[in-house]
Amino acid sequence: MRRAWLTGTAVLVAAGVLAGCSPPRYHLIAAYNGDDGKPWIMLAPCGRTDITSVDVSSWPSDRNGSPYTPGTEELSGWRSGFDPGIGGGSLPLFDPPASWSVRPDGEQRILPGRQYSVEFYSPEDGVYYGQVYFTAEDLAGLEPGEVWAGDRAMTRKEFREYRAGEC
Fold first, then answer.
1. Would you say residue 84 lies in a domain?
2. How far out from the chain centre does Cα 17 lie?
């Protein structure tokens, strides 16, 4: 009996440690079409927390949605360094502020047939990631005033309410 109890306790402790190793991910980024016709992103961290890095990556949509599939020929994205205090706001998807330390990866334009991921990292208020996944086709299907967040189209007001629920 004691052995079963110790084994069960060890399994529960191990599961708790493993579950706590990765910061949570929230849908706190919206992608949308700007007035200039180009894709934009809205970074919406919880409260007034700062963002220290942003990562835009992509991979072919027909590869089961995995960014780690070998043979991803075309790249389209960029990565920012760990810049202090980026904060939230909107920016063109492929035109981050010049003050950020950015490393571009491949084409700096949205490509058809690719899945895009935008993530930010916030080390404040419990450490978490913000994220959104979308395709060029998702953005092309948006109505004026809509954004893509949480794997669906929604109005900006719905996104603000959705964000409040995530935070």
1. yes
2. 24
Q: How far are the Cα atoms of 13, 57, 154 from residue 77, in angstroms, in the given order?
A: 39, 5, 24
Is residue 1 included in any domain, yes or no?
Answer: no
Q: Distance between CA 161 and CA 167 in Å, rounded?
A: 10
Quote the tokens at residue 69.
């599939």
Q: Give the number of domains in the chain.
A: 1
Which structural domain, as residue segments, surrounds residue 153?
24-166
Residue range 92-117, pLDDT digits in tens: 999 998 888 899 998 899 988 899 99
pLDDT at 158: 96
Q: Which two tokens stand for residue 125?
A: 């208020």
pLDDT in tens, 18-77: 345 688 889 999 999 999 999 999 999 988 778 889 999 998 887 554 555 545 456 789
CA dist., res. 153 & res. 24, Å (int) = 23
In a domain, 43, yes or no: yes
72 CB contacts (<8 Å, ≥6 apart)? 59, 60, 63
CB proximity list for 26: less than 8 A, separation 6 or greater? 46, 128, 129, 130, 131, 166, 167
